[in-house]
Amino acid sequence: MATDAADFAISEREKFQHCYNRLRTFYFREDEASKTNLNILLDELIALDYSWIIVKTEEANHLLTKLCGTVPLHQERLVVKVCQIIHNFRTKQKIDLEERSLDLLTDYIVKALHRCPAWVQAEMLKAFASVLYENCDRVSRSLETLLGQHGILVQLATLPTQDEDVFREAVQCLECLTTKPASGDYMEEKYALICFRMFTNLLHQTQSAKLDPFAKCKILTNCLRGLQNILQVTKAMPVDQLGPVLAAVRAYMFYGLCNQMPSVPESLYPAAYGQLDVLNPQKGDENTEAIGETKESKTQGQKKGKKKRNKKAGVKGDSENDHLMSFDEEATHLVTSLSLKTNEDPLFQPAWTKVSSSESDWSDTEGGQGSKFRTYCTRVRQSSLGCLHCIIKTTDKKLMFGYWSSFIPDSPHTNSSSEQQSLFTIIMKDAAPKCRLGALTALTSLLDGTKLLLALADDSEDVSMAFTPFSVILGSTIKELHRCLLLAMLAENFPITLTQLIKCLGTLIANVPYHRLRPGLLTRIVKQIRHFINHRDPNVRVACLTCLGAMASIQPPLMEICHIVQPSHPPVGTHYLHPTELERSHPRIASDSGINSSQSVSSSDSSHIEGEKVPGPMSSGCSPGVTTPGQGSSSSGIQTPYFSDQTLQAHAREISWVVKLCLRNILPQKNVDRSGKEIDNSYFEPLPVRLESLQVLAHLTKGYFPIIRSSVTLLREVIHKCYQERDPVVQLHVAKVLQEFTQVLLQDVQSSDKVTSPDRLTRQEVLDFWLSLLNGPVPAVLQVPFNNPVRATTCDCIANIGADTFIALPLDKRMLIITLILGLTSDEDKAVRSAAIRTLGVFVLYRNLREDVSFMSDATNAILGGIDDKSIAVRVKAAWSLANLCDALSLNRDEGDGEFMEEFPDSLLYKIVTMATKSCQDNDKVKSNSVRAIGNALKYLPARSINQENFVNAIAEGIKALVKNIGSGAMKVRWNACYATSNIFKNRDLPHGRVSWTSDILNALCGAVKECKNFKVRINAALGLTSLEERSQFGSVQIFSGVWSDLISALKAAREITDFAEYRYRDNLIDQVCAALVHMMSLLTPDDLVCLQASVEREGDFLMESLDKYWTTMPMLSQIGMYVSPAISRLTRLTNGQLSDQTQTCIQVLLAICQRLVMPDEGEVPERTVEKSAFIQTYD
């Protein structure tokens, strides 16, 4: 058979070669013989079987060039045949046109279109479409001729038209012109906009035009695909065209569905949510029961009968008690609801469940045409959904959110009118799996990235309001999304569509604020996807795991998820017939796990998942320790309780069924024969299933660690086994699991000092875990120069070891870790270098390591090497680590570690200051830590180094860099620079007040505290001014009085807020500025008072009023109190000196101010009621 096919292809190739050779030497004359010979040659070329590749690119280009120069335009019949050959070469032989051939063909066809009659134009346009396909960048010179004001395509693709075929092919040309070329270049923006508007206008006009139904379908498909092409390339949606395009797309989403031909409105407008009304939950029964009723052929008696049957069948609406239903009741409700609606309204029945051809809308005599037309309608719907997906992807989420009500229902509808059709109409009714898939893809894209937009959703029970709040509409929409997706899951049986449906649920889970809704939605989702956890299609299993991972990623953690994930049994019996290696080593997993059993789990074993009332969110009362904001209040807003560690840990003694599921997906499983006997060779689940299972474990570890605590031993073995695998992707994913696990393990150990619990991991268990890693795969992974992402992530894991665990390790293991990390700081891969330097930045803060001069010297050299790295990522981590290193040096000085200060070399200290100064000119992310490093390095600087000439210059350059970053740059850099100056002033060995840079720093701080728009910068600037502990550090009297005046100005400016976001920092700023002023009072000298007389006389009343007002509002929270007593003592001593009357008056004013700030006795502090605040701080 293969030989015959090859012989046939060779024969066709020989025929083409014969024709090609004859045409190369052919010369056309205006006589009958020449016309006849050319006609015969063209017929022979057309008659060839082009299903085989028989034409070479060079031959095709030469042949087409020859034909364009040979066949005259007035020979219409010959021109038609030339167009057929062009079409065959481009579409069947996939010939790439050369630049010269493309230009000749374009000019030839455009001239022919202007000259030839209409009956020839259709074939020309068909060939022209194949020429333009993916070539819009190469025909840019002809775009004005095609798309200009009098362009040929603009004229031919405009309604009304005299020739339907020409119109259809012209639209086809426009679509091909918009396809993305291989080069990546595209047509100019103005031509793309012309095409966009033409497609939009045609979508609005074609439906009402008098065209053949099949031609109409083709034209609509071309227009929708053309819009999709433009949006995919330009990535920009014209805002002025959004309403009209969405109106057309929404109309054609339902084209031919349920035998309906929609009308296209002029435009679609954002919903006015204030005018909508949400369905009363208490009336949901009636509305849901009536969902399938139609007015045709229905008598009033029939309606009553159906209502009675519905009530007998127990069909329920979306009532507020649905979340208390058991899964069996809920599944029965969904299936019964679907079947009843199907009986009442044939249109509600999912069309792909119709098996009998006699149920078709078309008669038997029209079966062929009817089937063809349905196929064409399906293409229209599919193209419309694809276009909608592109519109959603290229439109701002906030802008698209206004059109949600046109595509997503916010309540169960009482009828199936076109105004209430939504994406779920297609998902539930469309017979074509690709259309259902397209609708789900568009819905997924619509939901993705809307977490902030849905954050206000509310599930209020109060329905007595005069209007429906927007938050309640959002809550109702979210509930309807869950309801419809779960209904669709019951009916869907196409694997690809089912996969997308579950992915859509996962996207919904990731964006919904479940803590503001009543519990139950997530439980229903898990009860549905439980049936697909062991689906034969691995893509479906991956989608289910993605849903579980999305649940585990919800923040804040919810008690409902704990009750879903926590039990040792899954919601229903799932079949794992083959034990894994881990089960044999840990019988606890396999014994009565509910996963290994071939029988379903009894209802008594999983009653807490199957809908029975349990403590916590699933019952009326919450367990002790469950955090339930708003509990006991009738107002909604925060409905679902958060979980507390103590409550959950008391019940999480068994291994979670989700953990078991993930472990079985990750680890190898044994093959068994029909008799149940094990076969030697084991097998793994498909790689996507294994990777998604590892991600679920990572999410579960991060958000719900109490559930993982009882599985530490199992996780340790999984980590070991996955690290030993050769697949780098598996190693990377298990490294991510280890990273999350070590982070929460460190937090758990640190919190155990504050909260004692017998269920927490002991320090010995944590130490054993780390010893198993260090004795296992971790050292080998770090030393093998392959799979750099795994090595980098493993470095990050080691950084989470913690100071207490590190010091408890044996000496050889500590030396192993330090040796490995120091070696990796010079690795060839930038990610590994970055992670190793960051780990050093953590280690330098460990007490036992920061007191080790040898380690600190090695770490300094390694970190300074990263400051000069070519990679910005490495430099950012190096700057952060350098700042931590300087923090450690500063701590050693504060703790009086004189031995360390003597042994730490000045040469390294000099490098630290100079390299930190140099990096202050780098990226903002580097600067923010470099200024911090300068501040702590100069705070540490010992007296022996300050007077050295090289250090004098280095200090001056470092101060200059700080001053520059205080005055300009990113806000984080500026407030870190201000804070760095407060550290510099704490080193009394520095020549503060005796060198020129003192005034530079003070002027920079005063400028920041007065004028910076960011209040956090102002606060840190005021803090820097408060850090000068001696009068001599200010320098001259003029500098001191200038600082005083600037602080007074800053106090006035603090009351003027231009940015409302800074309001929450205002009180802190005023407090810090007042503290700085009172602190300066404690440093006053008689000479200072002479300069301050005028300022105190002018601003005394304002200063007293401000301090008194602020002090009386929050005396217990202010920092002013620590400076009041020294200020009073200083002013009292000054009154005893020989001063002028004006100076004495100045002292008395200041003394009166300070005396009003004296803290009253504890019994005299008036009890203040807590003021209501319009602000709620949320901490991450």
Automatic annotation (TrEMBL):
Domain annotation DUF4042: ranges: 379-560
Basic and acidic residues compositional bias, start-end: 315-324
Compositional bias ranges of the Basic residues kind: 301-314
Chain intervals for the UniProt region annotation (Disordered): 283-324, 587-640
Polar residues: bias regions: 620-640
InterPro entries cross-referenced by the UniProt entry: ARM-like, ARM-type_fold, DUF4042, HEAT6
Compositional bias ranges of the Low complexity kind: 591-606
Protein name, entry field: HEAT repeat-containing protein 6
